[in-house]
Amino acid sequence: MPLSPKEGFRWLAPGGFTADTPGQVGIGGLDLAGARQVVQRLTSNEKGAWEVSRFNKYKLRLLGAATRLMPIYRNGQVERVKCYVRGNKQLALHGFFAMLVTLLKSESDLVRLLEGVSAQAHAQGSGAQEALFRQHALQALEVMLNDGWVEGKQNPKRPGITLGTPREGERIHTNADLNARIAGMRGPAQAP
Fold first, then answer.
1. SS3 of residue 83 by DSSP
2. For position 111, what pLDDT does the model report?
3. Distances from the Cα of 46 to the Cαs of 37, 42, 131, in angstroms?
4. What is the arithmetic mean of pLDDT over 130-148?
5. Full-model pTM
6. CA 34, 36, 38, 44: dihedral to nearest 10 degrees?
7. 151: part of which helix (H) or strand (E)?
8. Is 190 part of any domain?
9. Angle between helices 32-43 and 5-12 (to 10 degrees)
């Protein structure tokens, strides 16, 4: 897909990717939050709000999508996985995307969706890492919203969630030690 640098950043910024690691949101070894932090640094874009934060009710939008099989490579094997395709967007029914499609077929309320995600974490033996499991599920929901697989609405009578991308994170952050060493090498500032 040929893109100009500006178009490339616009494609990366909202998380418009679902196939780098099938079943999970990511590109180049980073999850969605990490990729967004890199984009913030490269573009000086300080906006960190997520689309998921604007809504608390979600509806699956599969109408008009074609289905096909796509290969997923795992453990030296090739698995055939159902995939929805609409235009240049695809949604593999694998991992977190498959879980969300299943949950969204019977539930639209954010609180109940998150309860379903927690139940899935425990059912898959990931209960000890439930917060990370929920983070990956919310990242998948964000991408599904941005790619048009999910429609969001706001119900003022129901609670919501506020997600953002901080400039400084656990993995993407300013190298304070290096900056201090560089500043020390320059010596005291001299008046002109």
1. strand
2. 95
3. 9, 11, 25
4. 89
5. 0.70
6. -150
7. strand 150-153
8. no
9. 140
Q: Using an 8 Å Cβ cutoff, are 123 and 110 in contact? A: no
By residue count, the chain amounts to 192
The verdict on residue 188 lying in a domain is no
Task: Note whether 81 and 101 are within 8 A (CB).
Answer: no
Instruction: Kindly state the helix (H) or strand (E) to which residue 82 belongs, with its residue range.
Output: strand 77-86
Give the separation between CA 22 and CA 148, rounded to whole angstroms.
18
Taking residue 50's Cβ as centre, other Cβ atoms within 10 Å add up to 22
For residues 37-49, average pLDDT? 63
**Do the domain assignments include residue 191?**
no
Query: How many domains does one find in the chain?
Result: 1
Would you say residue 1 has pLDDT above 60? no
Residue 63 lies in a domain: yes
Distance CA 51, CA 55 (A): 7
Q: Report helix, strand or coil for 187.
A: coil
Nearest Cα to Cα of residue 90 among 38, 155, 23: 23
Domain that holds residue 75: 5-167
Mean pLDDT of 109-130: 88
Average of per-residue pLDDT across 63-90 = 88
What does DSSP assign to residue 145? H
